Amino acid sequence: MYLTDRVAVITGGAGGIGAALGRRFVAEGAAAVVLADLNADAARAVAQAIGPVAHAVGVDVTDERQVRTLVEETERQYGRIDLFCANAGVATGGGVEAPDADWDRAWRVNVLAHVYAARAVLPAMLHRGQGYLLMTCSAAGVLTAVGDAPYTATKHAAVGFAEWLAITYRDAGIRVSALCPQGVDTPMLAEGLAAGHLGARVIAASGAVLTPDQVADAAVAGLAEERFLILPHPEVAGYARRRAEDPDGWQAGVRKLVRKLRAASQ
């Protein structure tokens, strides 16, 4: 899919990757970009900076009724949604001991929000015989997020759901991509580092932290090629192959890195 004259909706659009996607889509000639975010004021500020084809709405992606309303109002205003980017996500920094509330929030934002988006946009897309879903799933969805069990589990679920959609609806004209960046210079990473989360420290130590704009560039290229897995960090493909071919060796390597980081912090 090329973005010229397209109508796109982006959740988590108030900052980070979502805002970068909005800027890039407009630069590509999108007809309209709707930035949806729990922080409506921040989303409005981004939309105003992008220009007149962008506008913002306040949406809680864990509330299916709000997601459905977002889709209905966008379709009413613009006639269609060509591309829905389910981009909102949360990390916890917790392990198995993370409170149930953290597990539940990760599940609702990182997985169910994708389900709600698909339920809302698919009927009209299927009627037209075309449409695109871009789901931000993270490299944690094909590898792991060291130190964050809820994030790892839910991002794997998100990739699995995206793959199911791609298999089920491709022949009906629906395209699906899973955007899986590794380290990105976003508030999520900054907050993780400030809190001392192990996963954030692993990402920072990798030396491969991209800007949100670089991730948006990769997303646009992947959409043009209609690739299922969009990997802004090319090395993730190699890691995934190594993990599949030698899971014990892969885990040993990650454990070694974790031990090194823990020793350095003592």
UniProtKB/TrEMBL annotation:
SMART domains noted in UniProt: PKS_KR
Family matches, as InterPro entries: KR_dom (IPR057326), NAD(P)-bd_dom_sf (IPR036291), Sc_DH/Rdtase_CS (IPR020904), SDR_fam (IPR002347)
Top-level taxon: Bacteria
The entry's keywords: Oxidoreductase
CDD domains named in the record: SDR_c
Domain spans labelled Ketoreductase: 6-182
MF-aspect GO terms: oxidoreductase activity
Similarity annotation: Belongs to the short-chain dehydrogenases/reductases (SDR) family.
Name listed for the protein in its UniProt record: Dehydrogenase
